[in-house]
Amino acid sequence: MSDYPYAERFTVNRQLPEHGRDRAEILAELQQMAVEEDSSWETGQVSGSYYCGDREHYDYMTKAFGLFGHVNALQRDVCPSATKFEGEIIAMTLDMLHAEAVTDTTPAGIVTSGGTASITHAMLAYREQARDDRGIIHPNVVKPESAHAAFDKACHLFGIELRVAPINPETGIVELDAVANLMDDQTIAIVGSACTYGHGVVDPIAELGQLALSHGTGLHVDGCLGGFILPWGQELGYDIPLFDFRVPGVTSISADIHKYGYGLKGSSVLAVRDKALRNSQYFYLTDWTGGKYCSPGMDGSRSLGLLAATWASMVAYGKDGYLSHAKAIFSTADKMKAAVNSHSELRIIGAPTFCFAFTSDLFDIYHVNDFMRLRGWRFNGQQYPNSIHMAVTGPQTQPGLAEKFAADLDEAVQYGIERKDEPAGSAAIYGGVSGGITDEVDEFIKVVMADMMDTQQSLPPLV
Fold first, then answer.
1. 16 by DSSP, 3-state: which?
2. Is 449 helix (H, G, I), strand (E, B) or coil?
3. Using CA atoms, how far apart are residues 2 and 451, in angstroms rounded to an integer?
4. Distance between CA 358 and CA 89 in Å, rounded?
5. Which of 94, 112, 237, 384 sits CB 3.0–4.6 Å from 117 for a disulfide?
6. Is the dihedral of CA 98, 100, 105, 107 positive or negative?
7. CB neighbour class for 268 (10 Å; exposed up to 12, middle 13-18, buried from 19)
């Protein structure tokens, strides 16, 4: 993987150009890159990532963004539409997550830039509230091993001890006894997922809620992946356990609109049972020379365009639109899972819904990944144990894709059987390449690590 992709075709800007370029020329260059890169996911063979896939919807949101993209959402007196969009985004999300079940407090929320941001804001809120209300100065959070790495990042950033509970390797869900044993009087929150990123299973949220209530602590449900599709799966009659505010003990939920809410990337909601939790992470500075400063979240300036596009997506779909898309996605996932289950050499982990992971007890499942990559498929890879997952999205629901998956998988299993005594070429890398030959993966890791250690090493020195 090159530090400078497209270097052979387009100018590499290692410094500002002496003279500005023609805008039409720049747009033509961008158009060429966009068309070529879109062709990879439009096949429907890329797991997750591109949740909608409807080019007309993308164009619609782009127009909504363009009307407000230049506006700073901080300046509510100049543009009150920011208050309308943000407030209604939160209200619609709370409605979907059954906040009406909450009768003793006032539910609320904030709009963030993504799942990691929603999780991070939640951890900050729990830390601040626990310090102020309970006097906790050495906080800890208990999460399942399968919970997203964003919890690790948040605890690292905010000085929170993170305690990790093991998961059942057969079901993929957290061991409740382990969670209970890790909790103490300094625990500010425990975590459950609906559903887990890796395996697509729903943790026992009701039981975790009882643990949280008995310890007087919070329960955050990570619905970043499933928050905007599992509610519609429940309405369709799928066996999906309750995970939202109908469950006693659930105090916050993260749900990404830029996934199955079909918004543009950079849009998520942190919903809370009690606005006091949300308010605890506000930042105030009253004696600054620039004026009294109050920030509800970690971001300062934000583009109103993203709020407008997110709002526009939600009201364009409505409940019937989300339900219709969910029906197609769950149906396609059922077909794909049936294809996996037709092979005795493969095993689906747990009882997943629209997102499922599978492994093999006969050979390294990354042999299947290697072969499927040759057929144009891009899966997400897991480890401990090695497994690959498919998060079914809109592009997979196009006619014939589930059947192609089944046919290609037939060949891939045979490929794996023939190479069961050989090492596979793939590796598990979150959000990046999870297929290809070993040298390619090694080179990718080297580039990423080099960038992390010294992002300036291949650039001219700053002056």
1. coil
2. helix
3. 12
4. 35
5. 112
6. positive
7. buried
- Digits of tens for pLDDT over the chain (463 positions)? 678 899 999 999 999 999 999 999 999 999 999 999 999 899 999 999 999 999 999 999 999 999 999 999 988 889 999 999 999 999 999 999 999 999 999 999 999 999 999 999 999 999 999 999 999 999 999 999 999 999 999 999 999 999 999 999 999 999 999 999 999 999 999 999 999 999 999 999 999 999 999 999 999 999 999 999 999 999 999 999 999 999 999 999 999 999 999 999 999 999 999 999 999 999 999 999 999 988 888 999 999 999 999 999 999 999 999 999 999 999 999 999 999 999 999 999 999 999 999 999 999 999 999 999 999 999 988 888 999 999 999 999 999 999 999 999 999 999 999 999 999 987 665 555 444 444 444 454 444 445 544 443 443 333 2
- Sorted by where each starts, the structural domains of the chain and their CATH numbers stand as 81-313 (3.40.640.10), 318-450 (3.90.1150.10)
Residue with tokens 């395996």: 199
What is the helix (H) or strand (E) element at residue 285, kind and residue range? strand 283-285
Which amino acid appears at position 379 of this protein?
A: F
Q: How far apart are CA 194 and CA 154, in angstroms?
A: 19
The distance in angstroms from the start CA to the end CA of the chain is 28
Instruction: Supply φ then ψ for residue 315, to 5 degrees.
Output: -75, -25
d(CA 325, CA 329) in angstroms, rounded, equals 6
What are 269's strand-pairing partners? 111, 255
Side-chain-facing half-sphere of 330: CA atoms under 13 Å: 21
> Phi, psi (5° rounding) for residue 313?
-65, -45
Place of tokens 């629901």: 397
Contact 160, 188 (CB under 8 A): yes
Q: 295 with 282: CB under 8 angstroms?
A: yes
Give the whole-angstrom CA distance, residue 405 versus residue 342. 12
